[in-house]
């Protein structure tokens, strides 16, 4: 089973992110993320046979709820994403989670954490369209973060289908 830990979003935030994706869609072609797949990955675990150790690491989290804000559109090659404004609470949460996962024996990739939400993969702009400035694509969005989810990813004809396996509530501020 392919697992990852993530922040899922409210319907309101998903609508804002879909509006940004639709603005990109008007400028070109690509594989656009459906609303139900929009999330912010904190840690990718890969193919795991048993979820027990991942659930145990998630349960060890002791972190207060906080908010994050989306503030930019970025890209990794042909992948376009909505980026999160620098957030010390988000970075501390992710570091604590990574610490628990490593202590549980998960071999995680050692790379910088760039918090983002994938909007479109394999984006190819229309040759006759003018790029829309990023600040016109993504309106400022604030999302309260009150829980972290352990997710399973199953390949399907439309890309991937995600299932929530476990949830850890963050403590009240």
Describe the structure.
The chain has 173 residues and is α+β, with helices and mostly antiparallel strands. It has one domain (2-119, 133-169): Alpha-Beta Complex (Cyclic Phosphodiesterase, Chain: A). It has helices spanning 11-25, 52-59, 88-103, 134-137; strands spanning 2-8, 28-32, 39-47, 66-76, 79-84, 116-125, 141-145, 147-156, 159-169. Strand 4 (66-76) and strand 5 form a beta hairpin. The termini are far apart. The mean pLDDT is 89.
Q: What labels would you give this structure?
A:
5-stranded antiparallel sheet, single chain, 4-stranded antiparallel sheet, alpha+beta, 173 residues, Cyclic Phosphodiesterase, Chain: A, globular
What is shown here, in short?
By secondary structure, the chain is of the alpha+beta class.
CATH topology: Cyclic Phosphodiesterase, Chain: A
> Low-confidence stretches at least 5 residues in length (pLDDT < 50)?
none
Number of strands: 9
Helix fraction by DSSP (H/I, runs of at least 4): 10-25%
Shape: globular
Please give the domain count: 1
For the record, the CATH architecture stands as: Alpha-Beta Complex
Average pLDDT, to the nearest integer? 89
Query: In DSSP terms, counting alpha (H) and pi (I) runs of 4 or more, how many helices?
Result: 4
Characterize the largest beta sheet: strand count, sense, and whether it forms a barrel.
Answer: 5 strands, antiparallel
**CATH level-1 class:** Alpha Beta
Structural class: alpha+beta
> Oligomer, anyone?
single chain
Strand order of the largest sheet: 2-6-5-4-7
- For the record, give the distance between the C-alpha atoms at the N and C termini, rounded to a whole number: 34 Å
Radius of gyration: 16 Å
Note the beta-strand portion.
35-45%
Order of helices and strands: EHEEHEEHEHEEE
* CATH homologous superfamily assignment: Cyclic phosphodiesterase
């Amino acid at each position: 089973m392919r697992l990852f830990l993530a922040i899922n979003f409210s319907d309101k935030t998903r609508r804002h992110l879909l509006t940004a994706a639709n603005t990109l869609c008007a400028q070109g072609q690509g594989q656009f993320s459906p609303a139900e797949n929009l999330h912010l990955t904190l840690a990718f675990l890969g193919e795991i046979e048993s979820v027990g150790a991942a659930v145990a690491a998630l349960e060890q989290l002791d972190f207060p709820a906080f908010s994050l804000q989306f503030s930019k559109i970025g890209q990794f090659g042909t992948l376009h994403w909505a980026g999160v404004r620098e957030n010390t609470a988000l970075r501390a949460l992710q570091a604590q989670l990574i610490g628990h996962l490593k202590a549980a024996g998960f071999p995680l990739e050692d790379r910088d954490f760039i918090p983002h939400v994938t909007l479109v993969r394999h984006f190819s702009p229309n040759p006759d369209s003018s790029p829309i400035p990023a600040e016109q694509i993504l309106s400022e969005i604030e999302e309260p973060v009150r829980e972290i989810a352990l997710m399973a990813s199953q390949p399907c004809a439309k890309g991937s289908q995600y299932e929530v396996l476990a949830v850890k509530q963050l403590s009240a501020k």
